[in-house]
Amino acid sequence: MEYAEFDTERRRIIRSVGREITDAAQLEAAVERLREQAATLSADADRTRASEQLTALDGLLAEAAEPENEYVRRASEILQRSTAPEGTPAEQRTRAAAGMAEITRIAASAPTRGDRDAVLEMNEPLAVIVRTYDERAAPVGDDRGPGHEDVARFAVDRAVVPPGRITAPSSAPAARSTGSGGPEAQVRDR
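and the corresponding structure tokens:
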């Protein structure tokens, strides 16, 4: 199998969610078939790329399997819009980064830590998209990629999530202000 065939099927699955694919079992079966096809890719780089894309689809699977609450439902809608395969890679990256910021704002308003955590987990597939784009765009020798700070910042942005509301992992860098105002201005500036 060639990567283009894999990517065509991946895009078809994403577009089918909510239309032809209406429940978690159908989505799981489609992703499992895609995973089997990915194993047949001939180039190592293509298998690696496919694995990253499958990680993003695993996020959709996890979200589809969990019972919905209002916060999770809203974040899920954003996740679906933010992972749409249309557009250039740069447009997909921008859409994913904006989705991460929006999901982080929803998490900040969630009433319980469990709800916040469930919503924040939806940032993972979006972070994979951003990281994948950044790694491809990174200059030779830079394994972090441009914008690597943004991925971590969106996940635990102190301007969006006040200290004490959501605990950041000790490895997460502190959020940086762009000096342009509140969180909405920071997103608009990008």
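(Above: one complete record from the training split.) DSSP finds nine helices and no strands in the chain.
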